[in-house]
Design brief:
The protein is of the alpha/beta class. The protein folds into 2 domains: about 110 residues, Roll (Urease, subunit C, domain 1), CATH 2.30.40; about 300 residues, Alpha-Beta Barrel (TIM Barrel), CATH 3.20.20.140. The chain is about 35% helix and about 20% strand. The strands form 2 sheets. Strands 1, 2, 3, 4, 5, 15, 16, 17 and 18 form a 9-stranded mixed β-sheet that branches. Strand 10, helix 6 and strand 11 form a beta-alpha-beta unit. Helix 13 crosses helix 15. The chain is globular and about 70 Å long. The N and C termini lie far apart (about 55 Å).
């Protein structure tokens, strides 16, 4: 029996992509279990299916696949707007060591991870993100109960978002400058955390949660640790997520005599199952290394702008055939429409070329390409019979008609996450009528606020 029939809406299937995918007026999507049973006009779908358990009227609304964010750090929301001395942050290097490590990661607790992840997952679902690729950081939370990845998975499972999750493998010692000393023993703890999690949540396990090995970056690891990480990823066939070329290449060249892509290729880290995050300071040789290894790139333009890192050359990446998806680091509002629109615009301004990243390509980056990067394109990223029922229903607030010929432009130029009305993940309505169905929003917010206060107090901030 059909569980849900969502009918009467303007459907953007994105199958096989945004430009050539069918756009269906008065369309319908039928859901049975966790899969899409049928997609087409309302008349077509109603003829195919049995009487649905629940009908969702979507007249005047948009039905489309959920957005896919391929780089998040959900516990980072505890640091939003923290009143620290920003005069100390004169460079990205300062921001990484102080804001990222000293003020956040090194004082993160399992309780903070759980509370922040519940809040972040809730906010992302409510604004249209249905899938994330998450890196959990918190070296001093290792060895505690629950472990960092257990705390993250508990929150993700409860709220209902789809996620691949890993703990950051790094030789960095909390409280010690990486210029002074690194510790392979710290990396071993991270590898063990990933191993334990992957043993419970291996790829293709049939659920919403999978493990994906996470590495901080080449700069904070030795060749030996990087090779061990690849061996573990290959053992579980889980893929890797790693920050690459976020800091100036001179740091890597000084340490190794090579760029980050050169080091990672030599260690075997790069491959078609690798998501390389940021990828800003790259040479022509680095681009060629990515191309021949079929590396996926997570583009994070807003956080790169915050750190003054520069603008990744995404137009060139796309030109040479790299698969580029959208990430956001969880530094800002968690509304995917803001990150999506910024990505759509920044390359035009940076290159003084309005033809770069056309609307249909922007949508592919934010949905289809992300699903491909995570190895999930056969399951999500478009509305197609047999795929997982991950979709959103938008009630458009537009001063102009939203119709097949204007739909893609509307999403790039006008849509905001607050217009999302319903969200289905794995066939389950996790947001309905704009409200989370999987938990108490006020309680989730209150618990996150409590953990944020605890973290701020550990930074000496009076509240």
């Amino acid at each position: 029996m059909t569980d849900f029939l969502i009918k009467g809406g303007l459907i953007m299937t994105m199958e096989p992509d945004a430009l050539s995918g069918r756009i269906i007026p008065n369309g319908a999507v039928a859901i049975t279990g966790n899969e899409i049973e049928a997609v087409g006009t309302t008349e077509e779908v109603e003829q195919k299916i049995s009487a649905p358990r629940q009908v969702v009227q979507a007249d005047g609304k948009i039905i489309m696949p959920g957005f896919v964010c391929i780089h998040t750090h959900m516990p980072y929301v505890l640091g939003h707007n923290m009143p620290v001395d920003f005069s100390q942050l004169k460079s990205f290097w300062d921001m990484l060591q102080k804001m990222g490590w000293e003020w956040l990661e090194d004082i993160t607790t399992p309780e903070g991870i759980y509370a922040a992840t519940r809040y972040a997952a809730m906010k992302m679902l409510k604004s249209g993100t249905t899938t994330v690729c998450e890196i959990v950081e918190g070296p001093n939370a290792l060895g505690k109960t629950p472990s960092p990845l257990e705390a993250s998975a508990m929150a993700v499972d409860e709220i209902g978002i789809r996620a691949q999750i890993g703990f950051e493998v790094t030789e960095r010692i909390p409280g010690v400058s990486i210029l002074e000393k690194l510790s392979p023993e710290m990396a071993e703890k991270g590898l063990e955390e990933n191993f334990n999690f992957l043993s419970r949540f291996p790829p293709k396990n049939g659920g919403r949660i999978e493990g994906r090995l996470a590495i901080h970056e080449a700069y904070t690891n030795s060749f030996n640790t990087l090779k061990k990480a690849r061996e573990l990823a290959d053992r579980f066939k889980c893929g890797i997520q790693i920050h690459v070329a976020e800091i100036p290449r001179a740091f890597l060249v000084e340490k190794f005599g090579k760029s980050a892509p050169q080091v990672l290729e030599e260690c075997g880290v790069l491959g078609s199952d690798t998501i390389a995050v940021h990828c800003i300071d790259l040479s022509d040789e680095d681009f060629e290394i990515f191309r021949r290894n079929n590396v996926n790139v997570a583009h994070t333009p807003m956080t790169n702008s915050l750190g003054g890192n520069g603008v990744a050359n995404v137009p060139h990446m796309l030109e040479i055939g790299l698969n580029v998806g959208l990430g956001h680091d969880c530094f800002f509002t968690l509304d995917i429409s803001e990150y999506f629109r910024y990505m759509y615009l920044i390359h035009k301004a940076h290159n003084a070329n309005p033809m770069l990243i056309p609307p249909f390509q922007a949508l592919d980056i934010a949905i289809r390409n992300g699903a491909k990067a995570m190895g999930l394109l056969n399951e999500i990223g478009s509305l197609k019979e047999g795929k997982k029922a991950d979709l959103i229903v938008i009630d458009p607030d537009s001063p102009t008609p939203v119709m097949p010929s204007s739909l893609i432009s509307f999403l790039c130029s006008t849509w905001q996450g607050r217009q999302v009305e319903h969200v289905f993940v794995d066939g389950r309505p996790v947001v309905f009528g704009g409200r989370l169905t999987t938990g108490n929003e006020d309680e989730i917010k209150a618990e996150c606020l409590k953990e944020a206060k605890n973290l701020w107090k550990r930074n000496g901030i009076e509240i």
